[in-house]
Write a structure and sequence with these properties.
- It is a single chain.
- The protein is an alpha+beta fold and 434 residues long.
- It is 56% helix and 17% strand.
- The protein is built from 11 helices and 13 strands.
- The strands form 4 sheets. Strands 8-9-7-12-13 form a 5-stranded mixed sheet, sandwiched between helices. It has a 4-stranded antiparallel sheet with strand order 3-6-5-4, with helices on both faces.
- β8 and β9 form a beta hairpin.
- 26% of the residues are buried.
Length: 434
């Protein structure tokens, strides 16, 4: 598996993990938002139920009870046994809640409740009511002069295996007649006895607008959540489709871009490297030589340039062919590289000519390195069709210092030294001392 394939796979895994995380986060946010809106809609339903219930009771009190009072009867807690009397407004509200719950149980259920109930069915008979009532009491005022801005109390819970919204809204004393009626009941012996049995201090007296009772509304959420779950599934499928499509597009763009970068890098490499030996070519050598020259000027550091010309290379091409010559050049390239330090560079300038840049190297040490290169080249042999072939090397050295006017001066000095080495009998090293 090549580098591009491995990098593509790593990138794909990283992107897939990132998109999976984004998908999970988006799904969580969708579910959380859906839960929030389900709760808010359920609260809105409860608000409507409470408003309609209070409106119905208000109409009952003003239109029905008042008319009967004018006729000489009215409402009574014991209306069943009193001809001409009707239920109290609170009793009417209870009956209305029972009838509504019977017809709309799948949508909502409600009933009037109070800590100061007049009958057991309207008491604080479950954990929610016992938890919520004190929170309404905390909003009450000792001497209210105007209606209190009550804030309802609610929470989500399980009820008989069903997820529901439990909601409790204040039902305060809305008129003086209601206050007087309930204050009168609290003074009766029966109610005083009932309070003592319930371990509640008797004799409670209310003022207008104070907390007298509350409306408990229960809104089932399972049907709403079933509909919401279907919408969530659709949204999640869309998210997955969008993320997968985006991932495919990004991955495709990345692969295309990586190929283009690799192609550019390969073209750049080809422009500065020799295809046969994979050493830097003359263009790459000239760039490197320029950097060495700038380094000599800026850092006042001396470097050395070695020009290497192979001896006896042309007869190999003439006798054994250019393919044998190419194998000899590749072998010599490896030999030279093996003799150098990590900071040094070797280039093939063309034909059988090589150049070596020795970084931060005194001329004396450079001569030792060059001599090592010469011996190693001389010992390099290539087996070609049963024949062992080899070459020699003439090497010329020149310093790269800040005194040079241009890098070309170093090339000319090293070339001149190489020429001296050849004239002196070949296969030797000569250093230009200037």
């Amino acid at each position: 598996m090549n580098y591009l394939a491995r990098r593509t796979i790593r990138t794909f895994i990283l992107l897939a993990a990132s998109f999976a995380l984004m998908g999970m986060l988006a799904t969580f946010l969708i579910r959380d938002t859906a839960d929030y809106f389900i709760e808010r809609q359920a609260v809105a339903v409860a608000d409507i139920v409470v408003t309609l219930s209070k409106t119905a009771r208000s109409i009952y009190s003003k239109a029905v009870v008042k008319k009967l009072q004018e006729d000489g009867t009215g409402s009574s807690v014991d209306y069943v046994h009193k001809p001409g009397f009707i239920p109290l407004p609170a009793q009417f509200l209870k009956l209305l809640g029972q009838a509504s719950t019977k017809d709309t149980a799948r949508l909502f259920r409600y009933k009037p409740v109070s800590k100061w109930n007049l009958e057991p069915t309207q008491g604080l008979d479950d954990d929610f009511l016992r938890w919520a009532w004190p929170r309404l009491e905390a909003q009450d005022l000792k001497k209210p002069v105007r209606p209190i801005a009550w804030t309802p109390v609610w929470r989500i819970e399980q009820q008989n295996g069903e997820k529901v919204l439990r909601y409790l809204a204040a039902d305060p004393a809305s008129n003086q007649l209601c206050v007087d009626c309930h204050n009168g009941y609290e003074s009766s012996s029966d109610i005083i006895t009932q309070r003592k049995l319930a371990r509640v201090a008797p004799g409670k007296q209310w003022k207008l607008h104070q907390l007298l009772g509350a409306l408990s509304v229960t809104v089932p959420l399972d049907r709403i959540e079933t509909l919401a779950a279907d919408q969530i599934r659709r949204a999640v499928l869309w998210i997955v489709a969008i993320l997968v499509s985006s991932l495919a597009l990004i991955l495709g763009a990345y692969v295309w871009s990586a190929k283009q970068r690799r192609k550019v890098a390969h073209l750049s490499w080809q422009a500065t490297h020799d295809a046969l030996t994979e050493l830097i070519n003359r263009r790459g050598f000239e760039r490197s030589l320029h950097r060495f020259w700038i380094s000599a000027i800026e850092e006042n550091t001396a470097h050395v340039l070695a020009m290497i010309d192979l001896d006896g290379f042309k007869p190999i091409n003439d006798t054994y062919g250019h393919q044998a010559g190419d194998e000899m050049l590749k072998a010599v390239s490896k030999t030279i590289k093996a003799c150098l330090r990590n900071s040094d560079l070797v280039a093939r300038l063309g034909g059988d000519e090589f150049a070596v840049l020795l970084h931060g190297c005194p001329l004396e040490h450079a001569q030792e390195i060059a001599e090592g290169i010469r011996r190693a080249i001389q010992e390099t042999q290539v087996d070609w069709n049963g024949h062992s072939i080899g070459v020699g090397a003439s090497i010329g050295l020149a310093r790269i210092t800040s005194k040079l006017e241009s890098p070309q001066d170093a090339i000319e000095a090293a070339d001149a030294a190489c020429y001296v080495a050849k004239k002196a009998g070949k296969n030797r090293v000569y250093a230009n001392e200037e």
